[in-house]
């Protein structure tokens, strides 16, 4: 099995796509006016207009209702990312913080309120775990 993508449904596709492009430095592929993808070597973040939910079934998803999932983006330097996100991110949940499992993390919220964790592995075990992955 292969996880193909993580998808966010939103009522404001253009705002959310622009936010993720600025926050990650990745240009989105706009496959349809109601759908975009930000592709990385390790996974894809898909963003779909909430109008597409009706195609999946009655009320199977709801924009701006997530409080149980975080999106994790590994970066080379979380402190530099924190500085770069000034003026892009409205809600910083925390400042860059050293976590006991060997990551330095910065938590923010996207315009829809979804939680995003930008992190840099700092401990030897954490660095080894991510050594072969491509990241920014």
Automatic annotation (TrEMBL):
Domain of life: Bacteria
Residue ranges of domain VOC in the record: 2-121
PROSITE patterns: VOC (PS51819)
SUPFAM superfamilies linked: Glyoxalase/Bleomycin resistance protein/Dihydroxybiphenyl dioxygenase
Protein name: VOC family protein
Species this chain originates from: Prauserella halophila
């Amino acid at each position: 099995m292969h996880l193909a993508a993580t998808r966010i449904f939103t009522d404001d596709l253009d705002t959310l796509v622009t936010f993720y492009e600025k926050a990650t430095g990745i240009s989105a592929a706009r496959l349809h006016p109601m759908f975009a993808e930000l592709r990385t070597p390790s996974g894809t973040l898909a963003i779909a207009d909430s109008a597409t939910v009706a195609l999946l079934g009655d009320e199977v998803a709801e924009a701006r209702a997530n409080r149980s999932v975080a999106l994790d983006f590994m970066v080379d330097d979380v402190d530099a990312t924190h500085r770069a996100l000034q003026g892009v991110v409205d809600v910083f949940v925390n400042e860059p913080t050293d976590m006991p499992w060997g990551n330095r993390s910065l938590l923010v919220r996207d315009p829809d309120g979804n939680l995003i964790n930008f992190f840099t592995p700092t401990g030897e075990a954490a660095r080894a775990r991510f050594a072969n992955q491509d990241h920014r």
